[in-house]
Amino acid sequence: MSIDYSVIPSPCYVLDEQSLHINLEILNLVQQETGVKIICALKGYSFWYTFPLLKKYLSGATASSYNEARLIAEEMGCEAHSYCPVYLEDHFEDMLFYSSHLTFNSLSQWFKYKDKALNFQKKVSFGLRINPAYSEITTDLYNPAIPGSRLGILRQDLGEKLPEGIDGLHFHVLCENDSYVLERCLAQVEAQFSDLIKQCQWINMGGGHLITREGYDIEHLIKLLKDFKQRYPHLKEIILEPGEAIGWQTGVLVSKVEDIIENQGVKVAMLDISFACHAPDTLEMPYKPHIQNAENPEDSAFKHVYRMGGCSCLAGDYIGMGWHDRMDIINWARQIAGWDPGCRIALYGLSMGAAAVMMASGEELPENIKCLIEDCGYTSIWDEYSHQAKTLLHIPAFPALYAMDLIVRLRQGFSMKEASCVEQVKKSKTPTLFIHGEDDAVVPLRMLDQVYGAAACEKEKITFPGAGHGESEYQTERYYGAIKGFVEKYLGKGCRVLVEAEVRTGSYEDTDGKKIYTTDFVARNIEPIDWKKGNTESSNDRPDSSEKEPEKEYAHMNEEDEDVPSWMKE
Questions:
Q1: Which domains does the chain have, with CATH numbers?
Q2: pTM of this structure
Q3: pLDDT digit string (tens) for 438-450?
Q4: Cβ atoms of 508 and 518 closer than 8 Å
């Protein structure tokens, strides 16, 4: 495709009609050699202004929504083969009006609309989508046959006869696959559904056939379809509905570099497009789009290496739920140890911070880190979002979590399952105190048992009855007493400090509606009084223990005061 891009506005999708003609000729060849019908799936190719050209070669188009069915009717001038996971009552008769074939995703949907469908003003042929529970698609987001899939009917849920009024079956278990994958999938379909295929007038083999890709064995596909047709000679129609194969390698997305940003050695070419809007499949599938006259940095020795960046705000700062943060924690500890080689560090984290501490524990920690305290951390990012999806949103893990995990892998470079506190604490050598509220609904108590049981280090565990997420500290004396006792084992008693604080009182109602009164000390100034003997002095800013500090008047705490917790009296 030879194009003068200087006259093309940016951003812009540019189609080469000659390349499109070649793809359509290939698809039409398969139709003529086999007698099957190939139709265009709009979710893979919807350049509607080329529909009159497509109509000259193909046998129609398939729709997965009301608007797609209408677009096919208005721009291609034919009726659609329609399939939707669910049909909406407001548009069901419109779908019938625009369709020649209409496939139902479930028996319940068929029985819901059966009377209206069979009594409609014009003839429509109805089918059921089947699920052979077999697919070779490696990206779960696109795999309709994974366990728990909502797409299609399993063989065990169909009887020995097709329901009255059903003319065909439809399966779709391919995505950018070749004829050999189709052959293996077809074997699974026939093994389970051959008796029902013999009752059909038509069968639709769905999309995902990348017939126009270089290297696709078209002769094998033709033989495969002919053999299938011979086994089921009664079928009036055998249908394939590729989408991507129509427009495969027929055009480009033109974009302009507006800026170049360099961050920590990474050069980013800022484009006038958004990948989320202009090329969402590069994020979802995922794949790396080819850039004209460019090479993969892994495959070349070019000095000019750039990352492509979109113009949206979507690729801003990330929240890593503790996984990236674990390295920040370690780097901060190393920085502190560089300032003071003799320092002793205890890491403490609450909720996501607790997860970050546990995730850090499985790495090589500086020797200065002596112990860890985690309060209500989760087992893994995947487990935590699964729990919240189920208890708060009341939705299953698929497809939302799988889509989220895909985006996390693409944009942050790790999977939510990989970010596991359980796996990290198995490698930990650092003493850890595990804390959890027994009524925690955000991070359930069972997660404490999992991380504590997996931890290979010296460990202690304490739970707090009645405490929700992050509320264990409200049981102040027991909470801070446990932390103080644990820390002293590994850090010892450090230097004395003077804390000047403002005392604030307050109250809140617990989960039982009981009013709880609180006393908070808000530190305004913290000063070291002396440094523990033997502590390595590495900063000129530290007070010299040999120099007597000037006398100051302090309001000393009365150790007999019953309102003062015991952990504060030393």
A1: 17-247 (3.20.20.10), 255-309 (no CATH), 320-492 (3.40.50.1820), 495-570 (no CATH)
A2: 0.56
A3: 999 899 999 999 9
A4: yes
